[in-house]
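Our working data are protein records whose layout never changes between entries. Instead of coordinates, the fold is spelled out as a row of discrete tokens. Here is such a record, shown just as it appears in the course material:
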Amino acid sequence: MIKYLFSLSLLLAVSTTCFSQVIFTYGSNAVDKGEFLKAFNKNPSTEPDPRKAMKEYLDLYIKFKLKVQAAKDAGLQNDDNFKLEGENFKRQLTENLVNEQANINQLVLEAFERSQQDLLISQIFIEVPLNSDTASAYANIQKAYAALKAGKDFVETAGAYSTDPAIQQNNGEIGYITVFSLPYKMETVVYGLKPGQFSAPYKSAIGYHIFKVNDARPAAGKRTIRQILLPLAAGATEAEKAQVAHKADSLYQLAQQGVAFEQLAMQNNLDAATNNNGMTEVGTGQYSPGFEQQVFSLKATGDISKPFTTSYGYHIIKLLDIIPVGKDSADVMTKAALQEKIIQDGRLNIAKEKLLDKWMTATGYKPAAYNEKAFLAYTDSLVNNRPVTKVAGITAATALFSFAKQTVTLTDWADFVQASRTSNSLLLGKNYKEALNQFTRSSCSQYYRNHIEDYNPSVKEQLAEFNDANLLFAIMDKQVWSNASADSAGLHKYYQAHAASYTWQPGVSALFVTAANKEQADEVAAKIKANPANWKAITESYGTQVYADSSRYEKEQLPGHQSLRLEKGFAGTPEKNEQDNSWSFIYITEVHPNSAPRSFDDARGLVINDYQQVVEEKWVETLRKKYPVKINEAAVASLK
């Protein structure tokens, strides 16, 4: 066993030493085998010979390191925009990582599974007014629970114990709900039940509940409707009710006779709360059970309901669209929609709150020793806007707690109190110890995020890669791209020396026209065919609806997908563009059957690209002199 352990230790030591072997140095900097192989493996090569691929990448990586070092020596990392981009990227990485730690993927899967089923639920509810004693309500909910366990009817029990008057009228029935209809913890209780089962008492912010699942159905999805609402005033007389009912019936008859429902809604919809003349989207658990029942009873688009009443008045609804619930948990759009709702819904925050217990340990949280009585007096003075300098036994520099690399003092606490003293319920209720606990956990969360790379090596690597890429872009723009583009004399000189390389291959001169729709495209094409010389005036007369570009194209560069006859005056058939609803066509104004030299203006883009490579090569040579490169050939030969 001892011999085995010794061999294993030796193997690990040799492996570590080999991996840290220097591949090359540049100036006073070194790159070891581990760093190089990690970079190489992230950039797969199409070169079939692995030895050649490694050698080619070594040259590229050396140039990369030289350029990044030049950027650092130029101080580009101190640029405000560079810092801001790095901070934004870190924030995005951090949020993604925290979401992963909070198991957002599991929350998405859970929400998807719940979204497949709507539950018809009832409840017993005993209200607990804010800041009142809960003992009586707790005793009553326990009595109700005991009665249910003894076999008493749920409706009867709801009527006997519920304090909500509405439950007396609807027998406690809430209606159908689906995922996101209820607060997450409440939803979890309900979806943990099978039809016919009732829950144990559940304490919410407003009181005690016992839920029962009466029925389960496949998810109904959503419906888009347009409605006519004729409101009834509270306390309306029978005569007034009859008058509104008669008008609702008249409108329904007109709709049945073929009068456009949209027109009727525009003229008669009195619901100021709805937009688009009564058009709205209805999902399970959003509206009153009676209203939803009418909406979901319509089976086909275009169906119109008979007039029906709710507490708001008389409704007539028309079904415009049926939006089914997503059925594939792997569908990208379904997952994205659920994830967005999860973030907005607050259930992700519940999972993140649990992470804080781990972070308190990971960040090295340590409470400090201080005069608690003085702290409470100091806080009370802050909350009540009294002078804090008179509080003895504590100062602004007093430490409250610390993390690995940060000490939080009374000054930080004072900033928190001043920022939230008029809105924080804990501070307003003088629950200063709990408010401090809230502040401590919030500080831990912020500290963890600010130092995320200390706890997640992958984040540290990604930040370094992102910053290096930004530095590379900045230094290349400064030393190569902008320089080459602005060097008119150099560009012309390079063009003259390589003019033979810049030629037009056989092709055409043509107009490429894009219109907002097919009708416009056909219309413009006909006008240009009739008067091609006037193409600019024709297209400009349509304003922003039509765009035209005149250019020369080589045969292989012709836009569009259709085969074109290469003859002057030929117009292609308008094609619908994939990225939007616009339509485009090409009109040939000239045919070029032979190759021809490109002028400098025609070749400018190509010349700039080629000249930039020359400028870059010269610049890299100066960098090699500034940061001498030494390659460890033996280490390179050992790369696998």
